[in-house]
């Protein structure tokens, strides 16, 4: 018997996406300047680690999720409509894949590969932060409709 999926406050991932989008935008701008490419690589490496934590441990154990739970959520009205954490975990895995591809392209010397990957991840994070539209979550739900994920 499978355990019930973890339920989360949907405002938490949106808060995390806000921080992530700012950091990804920094990666894009740092990556455009040859004198700060190493800083962009290092920052994207850190973000990849954060995506790994979110994908493997879930959004409530992610550092930004903890920050939300400790500092932000107590100041907000209680949320009654909690959501399944599985789409968010999948979205974190997609973010990890995109980040790792950018890091790999940088290592392989593909010009602007890191910047393009960070820009793609930025767009996804920004859509979630600004409009509560999670591309990775939508991809998860689409794949689930096609039977790639079980309940």
TrEMBL record:
Domain of life per record: Bacteria
Q: Which UniProt keywords apply?
A: Membrane, Transmembrane, Transmembrane helix
Keyword Transmembrane helix listed? The answer is yes
User: Where would I find the DUF4395 domain in this sequence?
Assistant: 8-145
Bilayer-crossing residues are 12-33, 39-60, 114-141
Under the heading InterPro entries, the entry gives:
DUF4395
* Keyword hit for Transmembrane helix: yes
Protein name in the entry? DUF4395 domain-containing protein
**Source organism of the structure:** Candidatus Rhodoluna planktonica
């Amino acid at each position: 018997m499978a355990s019930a999926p973890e339920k989360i406050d949907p405002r938490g991932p949106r808060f995390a996406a806000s921080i992530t989008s700012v950091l990804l935008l920094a990666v894009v701008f740092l990556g455009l300047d040859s004198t700060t490419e190493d800083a962009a690589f290092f920052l994207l490496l850190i973000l990849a680690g954060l995506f790994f934590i979110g994908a493997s441990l879930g959004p409530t154990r992610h550092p930004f999720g903890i920050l939300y739970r400790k500092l932000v959520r107590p100041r907000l009205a209680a949320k009654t409509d909690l959501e399944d954490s599985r789409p968010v975990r999948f979205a974190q895995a997609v973010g990890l894949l995109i980040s790792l591809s950018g890091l790999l392209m940088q290592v392989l010397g593909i010009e602007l590969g890191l910047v393009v990957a960070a820009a793609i991840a930025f767009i996804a994070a920004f859509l979630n932060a600004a409009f509560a539209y999670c591309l990775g979550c939508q991809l998860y739900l689409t794949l689930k409709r096609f039977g790639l994920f079980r309940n």
